[in-house]
Design brief:
Length: 408
């Protein structure tokens, strides 16, 4: 191990030994320029008085090759302006400590990125010195570069996915809308009979395909650009009731009863209106599809949820209950997974891509909500969504006055 000449060695032995044990490079520079320094020779500052074994391992030089020489000989030229500036600040006493990064040039010729911490100190009775603690950060730099490269690649993939989705949407939806438009025209114009039934079959198949394509595009779009959702405060009872009424004609056609039970009309929550409507649509249409007789109930209530930290939280809870076929306990656990269906293959009893509930879950989660379900074969299914209540409508507000709220 390299050693100091007394008495500096005696005063600094503990620091040197501790740095070597910890594998930390340690270098000591004279804080004051030598008396015979030429005014134009600042390029050679600072000069190395001592360097420990850990620091030698970083740069690859021997103690004899590096001691007494200026640090400028062992670092990248791009670092020299910064070294000169910092060195003047340390010599003047303007700066007592600093941390920065520079690049050492290894004896073998390759660059070694190093984190350096400088501090001004006095060892024994000698003049002040500058102690530098060195850490090889090559692995960290490689990791950072890999992360940056991965980030750039992910951004490019996301950009390409968006372009593909846009083209895919246009190329599929445009002809599908034409098929549906002409199919609807044929259904209206043709007399009752075999040809009209063909037109209805075309319409039904087209709508089914359009629904599947739309669901796949929606899911891919959510995964590609999840940050596009913007939340605004809405009076939940109003949004829910308006949307729920839209399902009444469909249920009437299926011979089902619709119940809307709004128990709280003052809850204000943060929603993306379009995505909330889509999430509710996926859940209710699913309930209608698997209910052959009976009813679907849409209920709005409230619950208090305890939290590990902070006060309890008030949440608005929407429950959609049906009297349909229900699900097995095993499938209920996987109902929110993409493309999962209880019956599979060409012999399955129900149409669908298995994306309805997964999309509803994605929309709900992006609006800071929770979602879940309970089900029992032969007795129906209940799907619930809950959202944090951010404020409540003030009962004193009148229809002609601005809506006032009570913050939670």
């Amino acid at each position: 191990m390299s050693t100091f000449e007394d008495p500096i060695a005696q005063a600094s032995r503990a620091i040197v030994e501790a740095a070597n044990v910890a594998g930390i490079g340690l270098t000591i520079f004279a804080a004051e320029p030598p008396e015979d320094l030429d005014e134009t020779d600042d390029f050679e500052l600072p000069k190395i008085l001592y360097i420990n074994d850990a620091a030698l391992a970083i740069c690859g030089w021997t103690s004899d090759e590096i001691t007494g020489h200026p640090i400028a000989k062992f670092v990248a030229k791009k670092n020299l302006p910064e070294i000169r500036k910092k060195w003047k600040e340390f010599q003047s006493g303007e700066r007592l400590r600093d941390n920065f990064e520079l690049t050492f040039i290894h004896k073998a010729g390759h660059p070694v990125p190093v984190s350096i911490g400088l501090t001004r100190a006095t060892l024994g009775a000698h003049e002040p010195v500058i102690i530098a603690f060195l850490t090889n950060i090559a692995e960290r730099k490689q990791a950072e570069e890999a992360l940056l490269a991965a980030k750039a690649e992910a951004e490019e993939i996301s950009r390409l996915k968006s372009i593909i989705l846009s083209n895919f949407s246009h190329e599929l939806r445009t002809p599908l809308h034409s098929i549906l438009g002409f199919g609807s025209l044929l259904e209206d114009e043709l007399p009752e009979g075999e040809l009209r039934e063909y037109a209805r079959s075309v319409l039904s198949s087209g709508r089914r395909l359009l629904s599947t394509v739309t669901s796949i595009i929606e899911l891919a779009s959510l995964e590609s650009n999840p940050s596009e959702m913007v939340l605004y405060p809405f009076l939940l009872s109003e949004e829910l009731e308006t949307k729920a009424e839209e399902f009444r004609p469909l249920m009437r056609d299926r011979g089902l009863r619709l119940y809307i039970d709004i128990r709280h009309r003052d809850q204000i929550v943060l929603l993306d209106k379009d995505r909330f409507a889509k999430a509710l649509d996926k859940i209710v249409v699913n309930a209608i599809k698997f209910t052959h007789a009976g009813s679907v109930r849409i209920e709005l209530s409230e619950e208090i949820r305890s939290r590990p930290h902070g006060p309890p939280e008030e949440r608005a809870v929407i429950r959609i209950r049906d009297t349909g076929i229900g699900m097995s306990r095993e499938f209920a656990k996987a109902a929110f997974e993409k493309f999962k269906q209880e019956s599979t293959g060409t012999s399955r009893s129900y149409e669908g891509s298995g994306l309805g509930l997964p999309l509803a879950r994605s929309y709900t989660k992006l609006m800071n909500g929770d979602i879940g379900l309970t089900s029992e074969p032969g007795k129906g299914t209940e799907v619930w969504m809950s959202f944090p209540i951010v404020a409540k409508l003030n009962p004193a507000a009148t229809p002609t006055s601005p809506m006032s709220v009570r913050a939670r």
